[in-house]
Amino acid sequence: MSESAWSGEQLDLDAYLARIGYAGDRAPTLETLRAVQAAHVTAIGFENIDVLLGRPLALDVPSLQDKLVSGGRGGYCYEHNLLYAAALERLGFAVSGLGARIRMGDDRIRPTTHALLKVRLDGEDWITDVGFGGEALLAPLPLRAGYQERQGGWTFGIDRVDAADPDGERTWIVRSLHPEGWLDLYSFGAEPRYAVDFAVFNHYIATHPRSPFVQRLVVQRPDHGLRRTLIGTELTLTGTDYSRDVREVGAAELPRVLGELFRITLTDADEKTLVGWYGR
User: For residues 183 and 205, is the Cβ–Cβ distance under 8 A?
Assistant: First the structure.
């Protein structure tokens, strides 16, 4: 079998679906897409542990499967969405990649560093993204200006702005509704991105000294009704009313917190190394 755009033929689809706890229909429909996205986001944590420990991040499907599926680990956007793209491809979806500029309420021009996916279904384009971390979408959004949707107690929206982005393309913006109003999460244009593009983006994010992922631990897992975030040593649990429970996490309890709250399994060797780094 020749290699496909997202190397779906290299994925053990049964193992992936078991890892995310999905046992539903496998037909390439909107219902399947919604269910698989929600299952992936809530089952596999967002984390940058290997980046902190100075390890190279392999983005080929067998390596992603070893780490995120059989290894019980998580990853960040490139790892999540490349694994997810392979699964969607195997399920029969028409998948393409997109690159986004992180905003998080800031309208400064930032580099394109976030990976997300687009799926074409019955003549309409949908964005689907399992790698944004704490405020990740729990379901796909249609590319419709002004569209809003409630997902698991959280409200998301997508809009199109008149101004072109730095690449000269019309810009889409994904937003999350907070008590004080809409927060722009990220913006993206129409230019297709490929696995090789994500490999280049990944090199910057995993190695550049100004990357936020080389400076501190970032672990996140959104769910229906609760967002869990560990940034550095600060653990935050956020409810859908945006009430927050915040506390410090010490090195001794880090493995338990990662396992119980974020569903991240560490080997004994990785646990020892990470705890040593964390407790510096």
Answer: no
